[in-house]
Amino acid sequence: MSDAMRAAVKRVAKHFPTAIISGRSHGKVYEFVGLKELYYAGSHGMDIMGPVRQSTADDHRNGFTTTDKQGKDVNLFQPAAEFLPMIGEVYESLVESTKDIEGAKVENNKFCVSVHYRNVDEKSWPAVAQCVHDILKDYPRLRLTHGRKVLEVRPTINWDKGKAVTFLLESLGLSDCEDVLPIYIGDDRTDEDAFKVLREGNRGYGILVSAVPKESNAFYSLREPSEVMEFLKSLVMWRKSSAL
After folding, report:
1. Residues of the chain with CATH 3.30.70.1020
2. Sheet containing 142-147: which strands, arranged edge to edge?
3. Which CATH architecture has domain 84-155?
4. 219, 207 in Cβ contact below 8 A?
5. Would I find Hydrolase among this entry's keywords (predicted)?
């Protein structure tokens, strides 16, 4: 994340509750973004750190209260906690099985394992996929999903970025507010779950970031990160002007 984008996100978070939902682990996302003003959901929403609301912790057996790096009380929600040992095993196996494929990178994102093949010669893509499929044969409780030049191994639970959006809105006490308009910006195939939740519930707008037209559940689109940054700046300007 560029310094300019980080500054834009920080200004947005000053005026609106803001969260980042990523396929990477919660810790990696926080280190990458580095803004304590945000809420973070890693591993496609399977590792959520949000505000403390007693009702939320009581309603979800995988939620508990802890403290963040600033010593602030937060709710940590991990619906796939029981899969941690299994994910660790698969990660080690994939590192070993792909070690001879040049450019392949296996990443442990706590509740999912990502196998990146962006830097792999196209002729070797089938070999990467075969490695993943061979290992998954022994793990029927895990499933394979596809992102941008990445294969992701995830638990077979009914949870995704869309569920994470719903959870965060509930945690923030915003799910039943008529004067709240959630906006979700994303550029990955896995973001479609969040776009779909907002569209089907008629509760907000998804914005797809893509340089080319794509079929999507998003209502709107932006072509590149620079346009996202300008959009965020416009939100802040609107908020300031409406407060006058």
Report:
1. 84-155
2. 105-108, 113-116, 150-155, 142-147
3. 2-Layer Sandwich (3.30)
4. yes
5. yes
What is the residue-wise DSSP string for the chain? Answer: --HHHHHHHHHHHHHS--EEE-SS-HHHHHHHH--TTSEEEEGGGTEEEE---HHHHHH-TTEEEEE-TTS-EEEEE-TTGGGHHHHHHHHHHHHHHTTTSTT-EEEE-SSSEEEE-TTS-GGGHHHHHHHHHHHHTT-TTEEEEEETTEEEEEESSS--HHHHHHHHHHHTT-TT-TT---EEEE-SGGGHHHHHHHHHTTS-EEEEE-SS----S-SEEESSHHHHHHHHHHHHHHHHHHT-
Q: What fold is seen in the domain 3-79+159-242? A: Rossmann fold (3.40.50)
When pLDDT is averaged across residues 133-143 and rounded to a whole number, the result is: 95
Confidence (pTM): 0.80
pLDDT at residue 19 in the model: 94
Cα angle value 183/188/189 (rounded, 5°): 105
Look at the block and give the residue holding tokens 């006058």.
244
Instruction: Answer for the pair 43, 107: CB distance below 8 angstroms, yes or no.
Output: no
User: Pairing relation of β-strands 63-67 and 73-77?
Assistant: antiparallel
What is the C-alpha separation between 20 and 103, in angstroms, rounded?
A: 28
pLDDT of residue 181: 93
Question: CB neighbours (10 Å) of residue 47?
Answer: 26
Question: What is the torsional sign of CA 161, 173, 48, 137?
Answer: negative
- Nearest residue to 240 (alpha-carbon basis) of 37, 17, 15, 19: 15
